[in-house]
What does this fold into?
Amino acid sequence: MTHATAHDVILIVDDDPVIRMLMRRALNSSMINIIEASSGEEAIALFSVHLPDLILLDVSMDKMDGFECCSVIRAMPEGENVAIIMVTALDQPDDIKKAFDVGATDFMTKPVKWPLLNHRIQYVLKANKTIKELTKSKNKLARAQSIAHLGSWEWDFKNKTLDCSDEVYRMIGMQPQERELTFANLIEIVHPDDRELLSQTVKNALLTREPYDIEYRVLHGNGDIITLHDRTDISYDYGEPKLNGTLHDISNRKKSEQEIAYYAYFDTLTDLPNRRKFLLQLESAIALAKRHSTKLALLFIDLDHFKRINDTLGHKAGDELLCEAASRIKAIIRQADILGESNQSDYDNNHIARLGGDEFTLLLTELEEFDSVAIIAQQLIDELSKPYFIMGKQTFISASIGISFYPNDGLSGDMLLQHADTAMYEVKNNGKNGYQLFSHEMHKSLMDRLQIEAELREAITHGDQLELHYQPQVCATNGHIVGYEALLRWRHPRRGLLTPFDFIHIAESSGLIIVIGEWALLEACKKAKSLCAANSHVKRIAVNLSALQFNHPNILTHVQHALTQTGLPPRMLELEITESAIIDNVDDAILLLFKLKKLGVNLAIDDFGTGYSSLNYLKNFPIDTLKIDKSFVDGIVNNQKDAAIARTIIQLALNLGLSTIAEGVEYIEQSELLTSMGCNDLQGYLFAKPIPSTQL
It folds into this structure.
C-alpha cells in the first residue's frame, strides 16, 4: 500500500471541534500535514493558501453547508485536482447524489469508524494522485498535439461515434468536445473532391481490418481549406478490433510545396512560365502535334534596347517594363482569331513564357496556315513598339522576333528553340524591330559562325595566329610617313590570312574582342617605339577601339597598362573610335573621352560622316582628328556630292582646329584633289598596303 508522504496536506472542515480532534488523532499525523477549518468560509480561505491534497468536509454546518462549500472550491483554480470526502450523518440517497453532483470524490457517514479512517484516506489519496498524473499526462499530450497540429481518434467499428482528442475538433474549426463526431458528419466537412477517396478507404478498412495512410482536404469552420494527413493502425481490445488514427494538419507543408513548385516553374516577376516549364510544355506540344499530324510555331521574342532602360532608369523601371510587355503579349494572343474561343483562356499559362532577362517565347499550336503566324508576329511588334509610361516617364522599345516551325525546322524542342533564336539574331543584325522566319541557309551561317568562334578562341589560346599589320599614313604636302594604323589579321592554319571583315563581328558578338583588343593595344605600342626611333617623321601609331571595347569598364586601365608596359609617350598613341560607339551614351562617352585625353593620347573619330554625325556633339568631344571614310574618297573625283562631303568635313575640321586623314586613297587624282582641299594626311593603297610587322 502506498503511504502518504510528508508533503500531503489534509484540510479538516467541521464546525464541531471534537470531531476535528478525533479526526486528527485517527490520522497518521507524522506522514501528513493537517490543517483545520471551522466553517465553509474559512475552508475556502485556507484552500487558496495551502492547496490541500484532500478535504474532509462536513455537510451540516451553519451559514455555508458542505454542499455549497464543495461547489465553490471546485470552481476555484486547482479546485478540480483536490480529493473531497463529504462527511455526513445523513444516509439518504438524495443527499449522497447531491454530494456527487457538487463534485465530491467520496463520502463517509457518521458515526465515523475511526480505526478505518486512516486506511480510507490513504486509498483516496492514492487514487487522486493517479488521477492527477493521468490528467497531467493528458494535458501534456494535448499541448504537444496542439503544437504539432496533430490530433488522435479511435473507432471501435460498433458505435457511430468517434472518440476524438481536442486537437481534432480545433483542426476542423469546432470547440473541443462541442458535439459527438461520427463518420457521417465528418464526411460532410471533407472537400467534395476528396469525399469518395475517404469513404472508399474507410469502407475498405472495415472489410479488411487493414490500416490506411491517406491525405484529404477539409473545409474548416472559418472557410479555409486545410489538408490533413490521416494515418491509422488496427489494435485489439479483448479480441475486438479498433481503428486508431492520427490526424496531422499539413496545410503549411502543402502550401510550401506549392510555393516551391511555383518558384521552380514560374517567373515570379511576370507570373509567366519560366524556361524549365516552357521546355516541358514545348515537348508536350510537339508530342501532341506528332500524334495528330498537326503543325506548331515557336516565336522567340527579344526586346530591343532593354539594357538602356535598366542603365538609365534603373532595374525597378526595367522590371515594370517587363511586366507591361508581358501583359501586351498576352493581350495580343487573347485577341488573335487563330486561337479559337476554346483555347484563348489557356494560352496565358500554357503557351507564353519568359525565358529570362528580356526574352519571351510564344507557342502557337494546331496551325492550319503558316501565314497567320506572320500576322501575329507583326501585331506583337506593333504593340510592343507603342510608348511605355514607366515611373512617370515615357519611353520606347521595340522587339525582334525569330520564328521556327514544327516539323519543318526541327523535330525536337531544343532544335526549334535554337532555330527561332537564330532567326531572332538575324533580325538584330538587320536593324532590329522586325520578325524573321528561320531558314536552313541561316542555320548553315550559324554553324559557320560557331565554328569560327571556336577556332578564334583556340587562336587566342595559342597566341601565334593573330598578328598586326601596319598601313602608313603620309603627309599630304611632302609625302613623308607621319604615322601608321595598326590593323588586325588572323593567320588561320587552313583558311590563310583573314582580315577583320571575316571574323571581327564574331569576336564582338562573343565578347572575345575585349581580350583581342587588349592584346592589340599592347602590341601596337611596342611596335610604335621602334618605328618612331627608326623614322623621326613618324609621330603616331593609330589603334582602333571597337564599340564594345570602348564601352568596357576597364578600357582606361587597358590603355594605361599598354603605355606603362612599353614606355611609349602617350602623345604617340592615337585611339580611333567610331561615331556609333560614342553616340550610344553621349554623357558617359564624353566623360571617358576626357579621361583618355587626360592620359595624353590623341583621339580620332573613325569613318566620320557614316554614322550619326551631330555638330552639337562634336563641339563637346575632345577630338584631335577626323578620318574621312573610304566611301566618300572612292567617288571624290567623279561624284560632286562625295567631293562636297569631303570638302565639308575638311573645312569643318579646320574651323574646329582638328586635323584630317583620308582613308582608302588609291589613285593619284584622289590624292591631288584631297590635298587641294586642305586634307592633312592620306592613307591607302596608293602609298602602301598594310605591311606585316616583320617587314617594317
